[in-house]
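Collaborator request, handled under Task 6.
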Amino acid sequence: MGLQIFGFEKVEAPRFEFDVIWLKLAPSFYLHLIERDPTTKLPEGPWSATSAIADPKNLPRGHHVCFTISNFNYFVQKLKEKGIEVHERTQPDGKTKQAFFFDPDGNGLEVSSGSPAS
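Structure tokens returned to the collaborator:
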């Protein structure tokens, strides 16, 4: 129903070890619905993380907002230079890079080098 009301198009998502649904709203807004990690009480995020420096490796399955950026490597380098703990990984497509981190208020953020579905 949400697809019809909001105009999202379901697009192909990479295969992960958990369920995901990727939705696209033209021209370039994506919404990723990610299965909650059943081994944790709540996905790690601003309300469940115990501090702003909680482990960002838990964010791929936790609450976060993602931005696709063209200068991915430069951006991640600057985060590290500022002492921000970053969890990096490459999606199963082998091309799309991701970096997860927390802002000073404990909000989970992701930057991505692009979207394989675009």
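The cover message to the collaborator said: "The chain has a mean pLDDT of 79. The domain at 2-112 is CATH 3.10.180.10 (2,3-Dihydroxybiphenyl 1,2-Dioxygenase; domain 1). Please let us know whether this matches your experimental observations."
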